[in-house]
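Page 42, continued from yesterday. The earlier attempt failed because a stray header line got pasted into the input along with the sequence. Redoing it now with the clean sequence only.
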Amino acid sequence: MQARELTGRHVALIFVTAFTIIIGVNLKLAFSAVDTFPGLEVKNSYVASQSFDARRTAQQALGWQVSAHTMNNTVVLTIQTADGTPVQVQSLTATLGRATHVQDDITPSFIFDGTAYVAEAPLGAGNWNIRMTAIAQDGTPFQQRVPLLVKG
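This time it went through. Structure tokens are written below.
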């Protein structure tokens, strides 16, 4: 059997093919990243930063600890004081969605059951985020992103 000769044309073809694949994959990933970006958190970060320290200090003074889990197509959002006492807030709004895109976002109606806030929300397996805003009984706003892992 006779060995084939590696010519300049073969090397150029290998080079062009390899870089075409690399550039194609990079473009696919870049477009996918841009398409799934959920957007901005705030419209003007400079304006938001002006009151950040005061809001953070007031929120930390509440001493709340927040956690979430799912049970039988129900999301359970627990807000407790440092000693474990359940917190009932003036108002609670929350958006439940994937970390990577907004097309699955829902706004469940959480109801306080005496120990935690519960809402019906059948979720698929994976990582979810609850972006919540609560108003304490004294009027202090409390905002937090609560990660939620749904096992499938």
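Notes: Residues 10 and 75 are 60 Å apart (CA to CA).
Reminder to self: strip header lines before submitting.
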